[in-house]
Amino acid sequence: MRKHFIYSIGGLLACSMMLASCLGNNDDDITYYDDTALTAFSLGTLKYNKRVNADSVASTTLDCSSYKFYIDQQKRLVYNTDSLPVGVDVSKTVATISSKNSGTIVLKSINSDSLSYWSSTDSVDFTQPRKVRIYNHNGEYREYTVSVNVHKQYGDTLTWSNMGTLNALTAYSGMRIYATADRLFLLTNAAGFTASRPSAANWSQMEQQLDASAYINSAVLNDTLYVLSGGRLLRTSDGQSWKSESTQIKRLLGASKTKLYAFDADGNIASSSDGATWTAEKYDASTAWLPANDISLCAQQLQTNEDSYRLLLCGNRDYAQGDSTAVVWGKIEEPSTMQTQAWSLFNWDVTNPYPLHALSNLQVVAYDGMFVALGSSTMTNGTNWGATGFYRSADNGITWQRDTTMALPSGFSSPKNFAITTDKDHYLWIADATTGIIWRGRINRLGWAEEQKAFTK
Length: 457
Description:
Blueprint: E1 5-6, H1 9-23, E2 38-43, E3 45-53, E4 56-63, E5 69-72, E6 77-80, E7 95-99, E8 104-108, E9 115-117, E10 130-135, E11 141-147, E12 158-165, E13 175-179, E14 183-188, E15 192-196, E16 204-205, E17 218-221, E18 224-229, E19 232-236, E20 243-246, E21 251-255, E22 260-263, E23 269-272, E24 279-280, E25 293-301, E26 309-316, E27 327-333, E28 344-345, E29 363-367, E30 370-374, E31 391-393, E32 401-402, E33 418-422, E34 428-432, E35 437-443
Parallel strand pairs: 6-11
Antiparallel strand pairs: 1-9, 2-7, 3-4, 5-6, 8-9, 8-10, 10-11, 12-35, 13-14, 14-15, 15-16, 17-18, 18-19, 19-20, 21-22, 22-23, 23-24, 25-26, 26-27, 27-28, 29-30, 30-31, 31-32, 33-34, 34-35
């Protein structure tokens, strides 16, 4: 690559102006502009070591022209908020740079203060931020810092962290975990524990006495944990102070973003916005198909309407039924309207080869725009289904397929006795009663910060 080093930008510009003055003895006026700026930046096609699978990569190229670069004229920063994929080589980058009023574009060396003219045919090392100057015809310049951001993590990899061990968990035969904005609640069949979120560094046992089935009769609404225990509905926001009131509901199913859901005294689905007043829900199938065990109720925000949610009610019927598939009900919740939609049963038939299996200890959460299920490899009818792992539904609960991209934590035992939940920061939490380990994981791209894209000043 040929570079013309600049020892005096001002001198060169002055000479060019004098030369133009000597030659310009005609009637044409030459206009010089005092202001200039970097107005556009883009990349071309770059070398790319693309990951084929977990063990190998392939050498190819990637057209990077679609990656938009934003220019902050006030701070004089140029950067891409959508980082290039892992494996893109930016050490020899061909870029297109535009300047206002045909300003001269100059590149500062990485290792020294030397300057060189920029050429559209030059390859530039952008493995670190580079200083780019735009000179006007008077020798004045504006200096920008150009950063070409490349991801250091594979976006779709689920990364887990061991958040510590709660040894007491190994003594219990059943548990569930719940998350609020700043706390985690871990309920078992004999005790309850709480810790601050997101660290979960120190767990403390709650003094509130709960009955043996309270851990599966709990839900979080408006950062408050609701627990059905001993015929009363209890609620707390910190695990220390509790409020209690009598209730007629017999099973707390879960919560959406705006309502609690439960089975009322007659075994029908009912909803409540405060836990005090309950309204009967409608559904389009027999109550014989309502879940009785391993119940999960989760809500996924609709992409088309941020005020509406898709609800999924999943679980297993009475184990004596010998079902090989779980039951799944769904509905759309629209708090902003006065209309209440009915719950619909998702029927299984020969046209659907991918039902949700009736896995023991089945638990379902809304995650990454989909619904994710985890359970034991053994079904409730005793059939061994096979390898343990996550199942995902990308079509709102209709079909479920094994997700090989979402790996369980290394060291996680077979999920015969575990609990799983999600939090507002897109973390998955798994508590393993076999080892007592608390795991926290997140798909990498869900944790990437989004930089400012628009500048008005």
